């Protein structure tokens, strides 16, 4: 993903999820790929699936907030940025997300 090849990442994480459909790290990574490829609805679905098994999984909370933001649902994205901030107040991305969603 760091090299910007999101299509290849999407394929790789989809294959990983065929082997282990509940792997929350693969779900979050694929969610990130979907978001970077301009498909926030699919990104949201993967983030929500990752949260089903663990409501406090911080990476999935962030991805859900980002997906909601990119869908234009600023109110709900703000809610998830705040949730992440409560769980991990030291993470700057949640503070920035709150600011972004409030603008």
UniProtKB/TrEMBL annotation:
SUPFAM superfamilies: TPR-like. It holds the Pfam family TPR_8. PROSITE patterns: TPR. Gene3D superfamilies: Tetratricopeptide repeat domain. Keywords: Cell projection, Cytoplasm, Cytoskeleton, Repeat, TPR repeat. GO terms for cellular component: axoneme. InterPro entries: ODAD4, TPR-like_helical_dom_sf, TPR_rpt. It comes from the Eukaryota. TPR repeats lie at residues 58-91. It is found in: Cytoplasm, Cytoskeleton, Cilium axoneme. The keyword Ion transport does not apply. Its main location: cytoplasm. PANTHER family: OUTER DYNEIN ARM-DOCKING COMPLEX SUBUNIT 4, PTHR23040. This is Outer dynein arm-docking complex subunit 4. The lineage of its organism: Eukaryota, Metazoa, Ecdysozoa, Arthropoda, Hexapoda.
């Amino acid at each position: 993903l760091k090299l910007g090849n999101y299509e290849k990442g999407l394929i790789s994480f989809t294959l990983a999820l065929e082997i282990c459909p509940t792997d929350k790290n693969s779900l979050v990574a694929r969610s990130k790929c979907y978001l970077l490829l301009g498909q926030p609805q699919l990104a949201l679905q993967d983030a929500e699936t990752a949260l089903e098994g663990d409501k406090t999984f911080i990476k999935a909370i962030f991805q859900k907030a980002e997906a909601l933001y990119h869908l234009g649902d600023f109110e709900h994205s703000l809610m998830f940025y705040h949730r992440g901030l409560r769980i991990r107040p030291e993470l700057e991305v949640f503070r920035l997300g709150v600011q972004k969603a409030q603008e």
